[in-house]
Design goal:
By secondary structure, the protein is an alpha/beta fold. The chain is 44% helix and 19% strand. It has 5 helices and 5 strands, in the order βαβαβαβαβα.
Length: 133
């Protein structure tokens, strides 16, 4: 069975820990790393392109922003997805994230279940792709 290797970019340690636990249990993805700053996230994601399938990025980080992380991931592979999980998922923010290459945007307060569903669909798509067999 395949897994979705997921990198989490979130500056709040409690949210990061809870998100990783929920992703493992509910969405059955494999967290492969984490970062709390723009620079750390951008460097890891860019230097380890073969090591991740999905990145979940908060917009406002300890140092820097998720917008720069999105920009740094512009040249990822077509199967690699990057989604935003933010308290500021306004229509304008969603539009800006899409322009920077985000595949989806989820609101932390109201769309966690939607994020879990998205992760499950990614896992299913990956499992049913010819490369997975």
């Amino acid at each position: 069975m395949t897994t979705v290797r997921t990198f989490i970019v979130e500056d709040n340690p409690t949210i990061r820990k809870n998100l990783m636990g929920a992703l493992r249990e509910v969405a059955r993805v494999d967290p492969v790393g984490e970062a709390e700053s723009e620079e750390e996230a951008s460097r890891w994601l860019s230097c380890n392109l073969s090591q991740w399938d999905l990145a979940i990025v908060d917009l406002f980080l300890k140092d820097g922003t998720g917008f720069s992380v999105l920009e740094a991931c512009r040249h990822r592979g077509p199967a690699q997805k990057i989604v935003v999980l933010s308290n500021f998922a306004t229509p304008d923010m969603r539009r800006r994230c899409a322009q920077l290459g985000a595949d989806a945007v989820f609101d932390k307060a109201t769309e966690i279940e939607d994020l879990m569903d998205y992760c499950l669909r990614r896992r299913q798509a990956q499992f049913s792709s010819p490369a997975a067999h």
